[in-house]
Specification:
This protein is an alpha/beta fold. The protein has a single domain, classed as TIM Barrel (Alpha-Beta Barrel), CATH 3.20.20.70. 41% of the residues lie in helices and 16% in strands. An eight-stranded parallel barrel has the order 1-4-5-6-7-8-9-10, surrounded by eight helices. Helix 7 runs parallel beside helix 8. The longest helix has 17 residues. It is globular. The structure holds ligand PBG. Ligand PBG binds next to loops. InterPro entries: ALAD, ALAD_AS, Aldolase_TIM. It is an enzyme of class 4 (lyase). Homooctamer. One of its GO terms (molecular function) is zinc ion binding. Belongs to the ALAD family.
């Protein structure tokens, strides 16, 4: 069954399609786009640059974009996140207007890009993250993001009860149609390293009091089930490549779509090795994303979404 290209094609169990790829995008304040050193080929876009990149993404036929804001000013409660003139909300409106329904405009719903301490929530007096006070902020973010044109809110903060809380806030304000993507099994991972540069994170310390312990598979599955119970429309496993076992297990039990996030460190490792000539760049990218799909992801967030979509389209024309 492997002896010819046509047999291999017929016997292939997993296929990639542009529609199931989501491109994470960073948008900064100011008129210039800025390179991200640890993620060659990825930039912090200006709003205009982001509009163009989103239009390109739509033309490539990918499924959506996930937007992250990089504000100039941060404070203890992440005020920029709920300011209608805050970078993420302005960018969301601009991009939603640009692409219409050609792709799904999604937003990161988390405070870490907006807080001066860099944590995903607000802090209690003792410096710990205050889970329930953070939920109030997430509810406010949800409403402003939905009003700005986001169709799918990416809850990446790992607060307990965040899905139920945001779902109720949306439903109570006329946003019943805004969907919720729960970063359910999000691990406290070293592979987010380059992302911290990408959003100029000010975090000192780590997120181990709210993100999952990389040692725990069962807990990842449990978090996904809890989020489904609370009304998540999609659950996610993150990072992807080192957590394919968790992904497969969540995919086996979930009755909602399961996505995976191929994170910044996964991107950086392949780019770095390929730049040295140590691995074949294109084949490594294709294999890494295919493997995430094979493990059970219905869609994949990847910084290669647009480039990969172009390869897939070109392959289909052959
Ligand atoms: C939190 C968030 C992070 C990433 C996506 N959303 C950072 C973190 O949890 O530390 C990481 C994504 C990546 O590494 O590509 N807003």
């Amino acid at each position: 069954m492997r002896s010819s290209a046509s047999l291999r094609r017929l016997a292939s169990e997993t296929r990639l399609h542009p529609a199931e790829l989501v491109l994470p995008m960073f948008v900064r304040e100011g008129r210039e786009s800025v390179d991200i050193t640890s993620m060659p080929g990825v930039v912090q876009h200006s709003i205009d640059g982001a509009r163009r990149a989103a239009a390109e993404a739509a033309a490539a036929g990918i499924g959506g974009v996930m937007l992250f804001g990089v504000p100039d000013v941060r404070d203890a409660v992440g005020s920029g996140a709920t300011d209608p003139r805050g970078i993420l909300n302005v960018a969301t409106r601009a991009i939603a207007d640009e692409v219409g329904d050609a792709l799904v405009v999604q937003t990161d719903l988390c405070l870490d890009e907006f807080t001066d301490h860099g944590h995903c929530g607000v802090l209690a007096l003792d410096g710990s993250v205050d889970n329930d006070a953070t939920l109030e902020r997430y509810n406010e973010m949800a409403l402003i993001q939905a009003a700005s044109g986001s169709r799918l809110l990416g809850l990446s903060g790992m607060m307990d009860g965040q899905v139920a809380s945001v779902r109720a806030a949306l439903d109570g304000s006329g946003f019943q149609d805004t969907a919720v993507l729960a970063y359910s099994a999000k691990y406290a991972s070293a592979f987010y390293g380059p992302f911290r540069e990408a959003v100029q994170s000010t975090l000192t310390g780590d997120r181990r009091s709210y993100q999952l312990d990389p040692a725990n598979r069962r807990e990842g599955v449990r978090e996904a089930l809890l989020d489904i119970e609370q009304g998540a429309d999609v659950v996610m496993v993150k990072p992807a490549g080192s957590y394919l076992d968790v992904l497969a297990e969540v995919a086996a039990v979930s009755d909602v779509p399961v996505w995976a996030y191929q994170v910044s460190g996964e991107y950086a490792m392949i780019e770095a090795a390929a730049a040295q000539g140590w691995i074949d760049r294109r084949r490594s990218i294709e294999e890494s994303v295919l493997s995430i799909r094979r493990a059970g992801a219905d869609a994949v967030l990847t910084y290669w979404a647009v480039e990969l979509a172009a390869w897939l389209t070109e392959g289909n024309q052959k």
